[in-house]
Amino acid sequence: MVNNLHDLTIGHCNIQGGLTGISKSTEISNLINKHCLDVLSINETNLGEDVDSSTINIPSAFDFVRKDRPGSSRGGCALIINRKLAYKIVEIATDVENIEAIWLKVKSSNIHICGFYRSNNYCHIDNFIEYMICCMQKLRGKRIIFIGDINIDQNKVNDSRYRKLDMTLKTFNLVQTVQGITRYNH
């Protein structure tokens, strides 16, 4: 039973497509097993409506919940959730458009987890921040974890997008845990 964050193991991976292939699904399985994950958030699933979730090769003790980008085989996000974790998928209704996010609530606690993906070409940063604010207001008093890829370079502290995000995080006492560069251009 998960009563606090110390009992919960969460990971994140941007897979940049290929989830239907054996190579990426093997990497995902190895990542889950190596770190004994309860929840794995994945981005850029690049799954279209034509791909049946049952064809995705994930460990048999896990559920696969996904949010595809409408009308596209680009973007998208998913949560891979250990069935031993008592959870339910919840909808946080907003009027904000172009949001790729999935929410789950850990039943035995006050913990809500949002797996998300924000692409510069699909969701403007102002839309995403509006979505974060709306969700935080609706979940006031709950423990919240946002995990995903926001596609903002945190090393560019003078960038207006970074400043908007930073102000929003501070407003809700959220902490950015990634402190280094996660993308390398070759």
Task: Record keyword descriptors for this entry.
single chain, 186 residues, alpha/beta, four-stranded mixed sheet, 25% strand, globular
Could you write a compact summary of the structure shown?
This protein is α/β, with parallel strands linked by helices and 186 residues long.
Structure description:
The chain has three helices and eight strands, in the order βαββββββαβα. The N and C termini lie far apart (43 Å). 22% of the residues lie in helices and 25% in strands. α2 (125-138) packs parallel to α3 (160-171). It has 186 residues and is an alpha/beta fold. The protein is globular and about 40 Å long. The chain has helices spanning 22-35, 125-138, 160-171; strands spanning 10-14, 39-43, 62-67, 77-82, 87-90, 100-106, 111-117, 143-149. The strands form two sheets. A four-stranded mixed sheet has the order 1-2-4-3, with helices on one face. Strands 5-6-7-8 form a four-stranded mixed sheet, with no helix packed on it.
- The string of secondary-structure elements, in order, is EHEEEEEEHEH
**Poorly predicted sequence stretches spanning 5 or more consecutive residues:** none
The SS-based structural class is alpha/beta
* Spatial strand arrangement across the major sheet: 1-2-4-3
Instruction: Work out the radius of gyration.
Output: 16 Å
Distance between the termini: 43 Å
- Count of helix runs: 3
Indicate the overall shape. globular
Q: Sketch the major β-sheet.
A: 4 strands, mixed
Provide the β-strand percentage band. Answer: 25-35%
Q: What is the average of the pLDDT values?
A: 89
Count of distinct strands: 8
Q: In percent, how helical is the residue content?
A: 10-25%
